[in-house]
Amino acid sequence: MTKYIQLLLIFCVSQYIQAQFEFSGNVSDNFSNATAYLITIDDYNKIDLFITEQIIQESKIDSLGKFIFKGDFLASENKFYKIYIDNCNTEITDYNHLLNQCDDSNSIIFIANNSDKIYFPLNDLSQMFCSMKFTRLQNIAISKIDSVQESLLINLHDTKSDGQRKVIYKNYFQKLKKYSQSFNEPLIELYTYHIYSDNKSFTRPYYLTDIKHSDYYTNLLKRLKQKYPKSDYSQQFQQDLAKDKVQFKNNKTSFWIPILATLLAISILLNMLFIKQKIKKKKTVDYKTILSAQEQKVFELMHQKLANKEIAEQLFISVSTVKTHINSIYTKLSISSRKDISHFF
Length: 345
Description:
By secondary structure, the protein is α+β, with helices and mostly antiparallel strands. The protein is built from 13 helices and seven strands. The protein folds into four domains: 20-135, Immunoglobulins (Immunoglobulin-like), CATH 2.60.40; 149-254; 257-283; 286-345, Winged helix-like DNA-binding domain superfamily/Winged helix DNA-binding domain (Arc Repressor Mutant, subunit A). Strands 3-2-5-6 form a four-stranded antiparallel sheet. The chain has a three-stranded mixed sheet with strand order 4-1-7, with no helix packed on it. Helix 3 runs antiparallel to helix 4 (162-180), helix 7 runs antiparallel to helix 8 and helix 12 (308-315) packs across helix 13 (319-333).
């Protein structure tokens, strides 16, 4: 019996030693019967989503309201992870989870590797994920970034004009970006980049301008590749930068689109007038073959600026006959006045 107990103790100790990472914590009373999920984040653009395929471990909340994740299967390098808990449904494949629409949920995102130990106790107000005991400062960096966001935007609700809001947004962008660099961890800067560069973010216009003039993003990409050469984050970041630089150019050139459209319309109009004149000029070659002999005489006298009466006297015909010839000339040559006659000469 004693030997059996010793073997059991050795087995338990060996299992504990083998488990190199450990993420544990306590939940508030409303999550006492829920299940906690440990999720790996492979795409930082989907960091806010609950993706069932990314669940790597589950932990049932025990009677004391505690969950624990541990093992020896995480990456040895830093990576984004999420702990997610909700009361929507025990079936994680239902639409509430897939569409990320569960209101009765709570989660926390952090940076860790296979050797980290993090504990998430309840705070003095019995709120979960508001306090952390950690191995390294990088583990809580995301929480600190989120807290800084709140402090930078605290005066936003008191603003009364777009001008005031623009000042707050620009200040938020600059300070958030600078604060993320203080941790000396490219993944923290990447998380912050995701915040201010997102398509729905009010700071995106400032970011799009910044990537044109700053070499910060190129340097960040280099540091990501150096520190995490096997990570997919670097490739994603490189692709996002390429797309955003193209969008900046498109936004910049969009200012000229109305002007270019107007110039194009003017050009088309001038071309049409030119073609019309060219057609008229082309007809000058054929006017003698189109008009009768008498009409040609009338036409040539019209070109000499003679009045109808003068033409009648010179050709020994009546004025009414001159008018008849003129009407026929206008019809045959597709002209409407004497102003168009000069083109045929």
